[in-house]
């Protein structure tokens, strides 16, 4: 066990996975992942080729090139960087090539803002990648290691990204259990994939597809994401058997949920604050529990329905927006459950901090609304004092 940050935990996972190529381009707050990997390479601890490129688009392109040649490959990014490589994320998924990427989430400009928000990560939901989201540095390490095994499974053969809250996890240091290299070698076999570019046996890839074949390819990606649920559960159980670390037999995580009347649903690092708030609210007599979404893709309809179907009301808290509609997590839950009493709260954008007291206030308001049969719709929550800050929008200026 070591006290390390989320970024250091990811770098260690990449090293333990015996990655062969890392495509790197720095962007805050993921930079220290690639700095740590470069340091490992310089010290002789990492036997990988590190490719320094001129942009995030090139970082994903170089990583893709290595992966399609049969090499285990990794990259990391954030915010505008993820948007800049957006074209390549689709190309990698469409090529059915296993690649692992970590996204240290950050607000998207304009205006410039380097702090945490999940909108960058959530904007990739339709790209064809598997998507997990960590809640602490331990999960950042575990999910990164598992991502290689899952994405390289013959029932999947898709890229996978692991998200973690920028600065809150990327730079926060906690105790992390680090599996031994021998344990990881038992857990993670050598890379395999059905198609490999080989100069000795040249083939064409990525050529134009007639309409029906293109549609069948998209259908195959959809089916592979659905089938990955079972793979993820089996990989999680095996990871625990070999490393003794945590319980990954389910895609998502419950906290004091089974006997609760009311459920709070969210993802990421602020689950810790929410759990502390729930502990105190339960002492005050509120029957509330937490359901933490760990996998966005695949989206486990069965697990989610079983966990939440009997709750009197459901509160979904998003650190991201789908402009003009609400929080993306809320919209995903809404399409699954069709619950009469479900409401969404958007907060924490651009690094706005919420503490235990804020969660107690949000949850208490939600329960009161639910008791009145009015737990519906979307609201925006500002921590104390934040609502008093006036923003002069372009429309306001014109008036």
From TrEMBL:
Keywords: Oxidoreductase, Pyruvate. Its EC number is 1.2.7.11. One of its GO terms (molecular function) is 2-oxoglutarate synthase activity. One of its GO terms (biological process) is response to oxidative stress. Residues 13-235 form the Pyruvate flavodoxin/ferredoxin oxidoreductase pyrimidine binding domain. Residues 260-354 form the Pyruvate:ferredoxin oxidoreductase core domain. It catalyses: a 2-oxocarboxylate + 2 oxidized [2Fe-2S]-[ferredoxin] + CoA = an acyl-CoA + 2 reduced [2Fe-2S]-[ferredoxin] + CO2 + H(+). Heterotetramer of one alpha, one beta, one delta and one gamma chain. Heterodimer composed of an alpha and a beta subunit. Catalyzes the coenzyme A-dependent oxidative decarboxylation of different 2-oxoacids such as 2-oxoglutarate, pyruvate and 2-oxobutyrate to form their CoA derivatives. This is 2-oxoacid oxidoreductase (ferredoxin). It comes from Acidianus infernus.
């Amino acid at each position: 066990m070591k006290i390390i940050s989320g970024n250091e935990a990811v770098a260690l996972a990449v090293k333990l996975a015996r990655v062969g190529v890392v495509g790197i381009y720095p962007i805050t707050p993921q930079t220290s992942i690639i700095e740590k990997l470069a340091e490992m390479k310089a010290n002789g601890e990492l036997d990988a080729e590190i490719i320094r490129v001129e942009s995030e688009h090139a970082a994903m392109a170089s990583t893709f090139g290595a992966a399609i040649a049969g090499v285990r490959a990794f990259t990391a990014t954030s915010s505008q960087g993820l948007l800049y490589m957006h074209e390549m994320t689709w190309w990698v998924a469409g090529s059915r090539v296993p690649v692992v990427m970590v996204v240290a989430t950050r607000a998207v400009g304009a205006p410039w803002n380097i702090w945490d928000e999940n909108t960058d990560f959530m904007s990739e939901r339709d790209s064809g990648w598997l998507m997990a989201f960590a809640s602490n540095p331990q999960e950042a390490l575990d999910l990164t290691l598992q991502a290689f095994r899952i994405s390289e499974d013959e029932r999947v053969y898709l890229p996978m990204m692991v998200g973690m809250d920028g600065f809150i996890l990327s730079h926060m240091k906690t105790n992390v259990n680090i599996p031994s290299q021998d344990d990881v070698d038992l857990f993670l076999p050598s890379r395999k994939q059905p198609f490999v570019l080989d100069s000795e046996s040249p083939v064409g890839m990525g050529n134009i597809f007639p309409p029906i074949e293109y549609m069948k390819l998209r259908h195959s990606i959809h089916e592979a994401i659905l089938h990955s649920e079972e793979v993820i559960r089996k990989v999680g159980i095996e990871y625990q058997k070999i490393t003794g670390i945590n319980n990954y037999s389910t895609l998502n995580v419950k906290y004091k949920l089974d006997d609760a009347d009311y459920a709070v649903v969210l993802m990421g690092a602020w689950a810790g604050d929410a759990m502390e708030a729930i502990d105190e609210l339960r002492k005050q007599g509120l029957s509330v529990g937490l359901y933490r979404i760990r996998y966005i893709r695949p989206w486990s309809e069965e697990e989610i329905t079983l966990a939440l179907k009997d709750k009197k009301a459901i509160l979904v808290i998003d650190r991201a927006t789908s402009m003009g509609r609400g929080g993306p997590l809320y919209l995903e839950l809404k399409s699954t459950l069709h619950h009469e009493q479900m409401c969404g709260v958007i907060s924490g954008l651009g690094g706005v901090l919420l503490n235990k007291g804020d969660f107690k206030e949000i949850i208490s308001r939600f329960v009161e609304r639910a008791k009145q049969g009015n737990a519906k719709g979307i609201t925006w929550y500002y921590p104390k004092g934040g609502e008093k800050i006036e923003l002069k929008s372009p429309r306001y200026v014109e008036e």
